[in-house]
C-alpha cells in the first residue's frame, strides 16, 4: 500500500491548519504523480516546531542561534552565535515565536517543493 494515497498528512506530524492550507493550495494545481513527488520532497525538507523549540532552548545552554542555522538562516545564526543570541533577548523572542518561525520556513519549503514537482513531470 502506498502511504501517500491513504493519508498523506500522516507523514507530517504536528501539521498546523495554516500549513495544511498552503499544502492543499499547492496540491490543487498538481497531477497525481506530481503530488507524490511533492510529498516526498516536502516531507524531507519540512521542520517540526517542536524540534525548533528544542534547538532554541539549546541556545541558552550551548550554541546560541543553532535554531537559525537549522532554519537555513546562516547570517542570523552567525549573529546569534557571536552576540550570544543578542544577549539572550533574541533567543527569548524566538522561543515565543518558534511556531511562526517554523511556519515561515515550511511555507518556503511548500513553494520550493511545488516548483520542483512542476518541473519533475
From TrEMBL:
The chain crosses the membrane at residues 52-71, 77-96. It comes from the Bacteria. The keyword Membrane applies. InterPro entries: TM2, TM2D1-3-like. It comes from Mucilaginibacter ginsenosidivorans. Its main location: membrane. This is TM2 domain-containing protein. It holds the Pfam family TM2.
